[in-house]
Design goal:
Blueprint: E1 5-6, H1 13-24, H2 28-40, E2 47-52, H3 56-67, E3 71-76, H4 84-94, E4 98-99, H5 106-117, E5 123-126, H6 130-138, E6 148-151, H7 154-165, E7 173-175, H8 180-203, E8 211-215, H9 219-230, E9 234-238, H10 242-250, E10 254-255, H11 258-264, E11 267-270, H12 280-283, E12 290-294, H13 304-310, E13 316-319, E14 322-326, E15 332-336, H14 342-345, H15 352-372, E16 380-382, H16 385-398, H17 408-414
Parallel strand pairs: 1-4, 2-3, 2-5, 3-4, 5-6, 6-7, 7-16, 8-9, 8-11, 9-10, 11-12, 12-15
Antiparallel strand pairs: 13-14, 14-15
Helix pairs in contact: 1-3, 1-4, 2-3, 2-15, 3-15, 8-9, 8-15, 15-16
Bound molecules: nicotinamide-adenine-dinucleotide.
The site of nicotinamide-adenine-dinucleotide (NAD) has 30 residues, from helix 7, helix 8, helix 9 and helix 14.
Length: 421
């Protein structure tokens, strides 16, 4: 009997299965956790509602949770990021209920979240905190079942910390994003590579010689800026934090306000977690043919309502992920992937190798919640440092890389204060 689902077409399952297996080959840390989970069943009897990008890597995570004994249901954390073949395969081959269709409208997106909540989870697993937010706003009666949650991304952690500060958060949440083995690799190398991949797949533009404007110089945008530079682009960075701005200057980038950058940029990409980083007055001075996109969590980094208001008529869909807006003065501005995460909408999201570590954190965070929820308050916690270090060690081992060990003499030296010059 097929499990409950709402996916594009179950017939897509065979292709999805191959791609899930392909990702699995590059997820050795998660594989080791899955093998241990299969034996120990640390999540036995635990219902998990996961609201994550439905990708091949996520499929490997939910498979791991299932191997640990959990009863998992999956819904999308973004209306455009679902890989329909993966959703189909999870239902058909793994018997995991999935509610996710690429391109679903906002109404369906929220209905899907509700269906995941109907599962009466003990643990929520979020990417952007939509599930936690829906639960607190609309389904508070379900909160008593919940022992804790986990959160994947920067924006979600910011929202959850705001909830905790307001004393609105009613269960503990582990901020997976705050693990070093998550944001140092996933946000920087994963978003860096896959964002460029998304822009190239959507436009087929050459980066060499073009001026690329990167909004922000945090973990994600640093990765994007360095990859664009590597492809031969002239990269300009915009920032609001003087330290990050300074770091970008010392890393060899031009740094200036968005209004200045807007006049000279060819390709614009934001990844800040902020609102209207590219606003109407910026788009007013952009060159014709400018390409504008976002790789931050929400589609609010580019002021799309302002762009629509500035444009004459409806945009033309000139390529699958390119909407071309005609300005009153004849300029054309190209918006990619409706301003949503371009790396997940127009490409496949992060490569499996980095998601291996992010999702190892997710799996171990879920186990940690089961083991320790009674000791945790309604706060946002980081993944314990030992877990973070263990994941890094396992990843290095899997890559065949060894490192040195502190000697007894060095441990003693590093823990004393008497010895100096
Ligand atoms: N595309 C993906 O797959 C992916 C992956 C991980 C994280 N994210 C999302 O990307 C966003 C950034 O995450 P991060 O980990 O890099 O965060 P971060 O906090 O490390 O960096 C954000 C940077 O943006 C800067 N900033 C804020 N407002 C700005 C503005 N108006 N103009 C210019 N700079 C501004 C901040 O000063 C900061 O340096 C978040 O929304 C996060 O959830 C996306």
């Amino acid at each position: 009997m097929t499990v409950e689902h709402d996916v594009k077409s179950i017939d897509l399952a065979p292709g999805g299965r191959f791609r899930i297996e392909w990702a699995e080959q590059d997820m050795p840390v998660l594989r080791q956790i899955r093998e241990r989970f299969e034996n120990e069943k640390p999540l036995k009897g635990i219902r998990i509602a996961a609201c994550l990008h439905v990708t091949t890597e996520t499929a490997n995570l939910v498979w791991t949770l299932q191997a640990g004994g959990a009863d998992v249901v999956l819904t999308a954390s973004n209306p455009l990021s679902t890989q329909d073949d993966v959703a189909a395969s999870l239902v058909a081959n793994f018997e995991i209920p999935v509610f996710a269709i690429k391109g679903e409208d906002d109404k369906t997106y929220y209905e899907h979240l509700q269906r995941a909540l109907d599962h009466k989870p003990h643990i929520t697993m979020d990417d952007g905190a939509d599930l936690v937010s829906e639960l607190h706003k609309g389904r508070p009666e379900l909160i008593n079942n919940i022992i804790g949650g986990t959160e994947e991304t920067t924006t979600g952690v910011i929202r959850l910390r705001a909830m905790a500060a307001d004393k609105a958060l009613r269960f503990p949440v582990i901020a997976v994003n705050d693990s070093m083995t998550k944001h140092m690799f996933d946000n920087r190398y994963g978003t860096g590579q896959s964002t460029i991949d998304g822009i190239i797949r959507a436009t087929n533009l050459l980066f060499a010689g073009r001026t690329v404007v990167v909004g922000g110089y945090g973990w994600c945008s640093r990765g994007i800026a360095s990859r664009a530079k590597g492809l031969g682009a002239n990269v300009i960075v915009t920032e609001v934090d003087p330290l990050k701005g300074l770091e970008a200057v010392m890393d060899g980038f031009r740094v200036m306000p968005m209004l200045e950058a807007a006049k000279v940029g060819d390709i614009f990409v934001t990844s800040t977690g902020d609102l209207n980083v590219i606003d109407g007055h910026h788009m007013e001075v952009m060159k014709t043919g400018a390409v504008v996109c976002n790789s931050g969590h929400f589609n609010s980094e580019i002021n799309i309502p302002a762009l629509k208001a500035m444009a004459v008529g409806e945009p033309r869909k000139v390529r699958p992920f390119v909407d071309q807006f005609m300005m009153k003065d004849g300029r054309k501005i190209n918006l990619l992937a409706e301003g949503r995460l371009v790396n997940l909408s127009a490409a496949e999201g992060h490569p499996a190798s980095v998601m291996d570590m992010s999702f190892a954190n997710q799996a171990l965070a879920a186990e940690y919640v089961v083991l320790h929820h009674k000791e945790l308050a309604n706060q946002v916690y980081t993944v314990p440092e030992e877990i973070d270090h263990d994941i890094a060690r396992l990843k290095l081992e899997a890559m065949g890389v060894s490192i040195d060990k502190l000697t007894e003499e060095q441990i003693k030296y590093l823990n004393q204060w008497q010895e100096g010059t």
